[in-house]
Amino acid sequence: MKWTTLLLASALMAQTDPRSSPDDYMVKAKAGDITLAADFLFHSVPTLDGTFKSDSHVVVELAIYGQKTNIAFGQFSVRINGKKMPILAQPYGAALRGLSDPEWIPPKVEDDKNKRQPGDPPPQEPKMPFPLRREMELKVQKRVLPEGERTLPVAGLIFFPYRGKGEGIQSVELIYEGPAGTATLEFPL
After folding, report:
1. N or C: which end of the chain has fewer CB within 10 A?
2. Is 1 buried (19+), middle (13-18) or exposed (0-12) by CB count in 10 A?
3. d(Cα 184, Cα 173) in Å, to the nearest integer?
4. DSSP assigned state of 94
């Protein structure tokens, strides 16, 4: 039930601009003179035009409030289910390979076993057409947390490699170690 509710909520909350207040997110924490606020979205990738799914990464929507700071993906990591080693964030391009659109239905592939030679593999599942895939990737790119020296507030998505099922995630901590200091945000799951 939590998973379905979160998917629906993430689709409704898809936006590029930060919300009006850090209180509008699941969790928040201060690090020096900035405030970090975040939602943990499991494998959902919300965009302005719908929600996609990533089989290879979990996603955090992060907003940073304050005056100005330097942002880099290397400043963020997550600790899932209390593991000792946190998982470092990756650029969004690493997540594109595992991205899928739950609304796209591949055409049926008929497997006529009588026409195949013994030992031939079955036909492959059709892949999403390149123009549709590119459109999906551009929608995700628009939602990524911007890097570099930024005037705040800013918001966007951060991707962390994780192939486990969302139902198996019991605890998540987002860890920030950057120029403003350090902070840990614990998500209530």
Report:
1. N
2. exposed
3. 6
4. H
150, burial (CB in 10 Å: exposed 0-12, middle 13-18, buried 19+): middle
Q: What is the pTM of this model?
A: 0.84
DSSP H or E run through 18:
none
52, 92 contact by CB (below 8 A): no
Strand ordering across the sheet containing 76-80: 87-88, 76-80, 172-178, 181-187
Kindly report, residue by residue over 83-135, the tens digit of the pLDDT: 999 999 999 999 999 999 999 988 887 766 677 778 888 778 888 999 999 99
Partners of residue 181 on adjacent β-strands: 178
Answer whether 104's CB lies under 8 Å from 128's CB: yes
Those residues with Cβ within 8 angstroms of residue 122's Cβ, 6 or more apart along the chain or in another chain: 111, 116
Q: How do residues 125-171 score in pLDDT, each as one tens digit?
A: 888 999 999 999 999 999 999 999 999 999 999 999 999 999 999 99
Nearest in space to 42 (alpha carbons), one of 84, 8, 93: 8
